[in-house]
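Whether sequence alone determines local backbone shape is best considered at the level of individual chains. When preparing material for the folding task, we compiled for one chain both its residues and its backbone structure tokens. The sequence in question and its structure tokens are set out directly beneath this paragraph.
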Amino acid sequence: MHTHGKSVMDSIIGSVGRVANVKVRNDDDLNDRVNHLYTTGILIIFTVVVSARQYVGDPIRCWCPAQFTGAHVDYTNNICWISNTYFVPMDVSVPESVPKRRENELTYYQWVPVMLLIQALMFYIPCILWRLFNGQSGINVDRIVSLASDAQYEAPEVRIRTIKYVVRHIDRCLDNQRESRHRCCVTLRHVLSVKMSLLCGRRYGNYLITVYLVMKMLYIANAIGQLFMLNAFLASEYNMYGFQVLEDLIEGDEWTASRRFPRVTMCDFDIRQMTNNHHYSVQCVLPINLFNEKIYIFLWFWLVFVSALTCYSFISWLWQMVFPSSRIHYIRKFLKIMDRIGSGPDKKLATRFTMEYLRHDGVFTLRLVGKNSSDIVVAEIISGLWDLYRSKKSIQIRNTLPSNGHESDGEDV
């Protein structure tokens, strides 16, 4: 028996170790990981704690009449656990009316582990959708960001090879997104997507950022929505819970004596003996509510924090990616750091480099690289893409010289 228990424990520890060694993807920013990784992990830990208390310890204990035997006491505890108890303050008489008692019925405590798991799943669903849809963009974001992130810790010669590979990979991915623009309607759609961000799609170069912003909105809706979802689950004004706790702390009141999570409750049940039914009302203690109260106090403040952080992140990304001036400034900044542009014609070409070559998704990918590695890595990648872009423009100009006899205006290389 001891050997069997040891083998089971070893298998559990081994499973946890394998999960801990799973590589974290790099196709999002820190705020996204707060939602789908850290919050999900916290909720799973809470699920384990509450489940262990429910199924290993005694989640409820009832004060039974003296004539009850041990079997009767066990039955009372079990029937009061699976059927809902109700809360009546000690200074208030127990109502005689059954409907009155059910007004204060507690219906949640058996289902807390299930609800915590549902909350964890809801925080992970936007991440699943993001990874499902970003693979359709033609840009392997996770591969690019992972290589760039690893490059900052590699030896100089390996780092140079990695940066060159990332530059070629990004260039191929950007080429895969493009379409011919010789028709008027295609040109018009391209202008609407680049200049005004009105059209979205892979061919317009803004598919990735559109899906990413939608994912951010899902995170916001999820975090705020869970505050109101818990209202229905706990049958109380949970969305105001944190403010009431703070008010009690400021006024010096007992903030742990919450009507939402009472420790002492009442339970009614009937015992059938032949043709007679005996009704009993007993007083029960719910030790599990000690854990539930602390968990849901923490969750209120955590959900508010995550909601505010995600709203800020969404607004920041929206500002950085929707407005062309913000994208152009970002690229020019790194080109100046690497001494790739001066003034005048170079700035004009840098604008075309940003708007026509990189487009929304290219700049978005570079920003993600910066959030997961360092600005130096981003600067080296941008300078490599800039050199590649200039060489392509030089080839195009040389190919047009025999037919036109002179260089086209505005093609400053």
Remarks:
- The first strand starts at residue 61 and ends at 63.
- Residues 288-322 form the longest helix (35 residues).
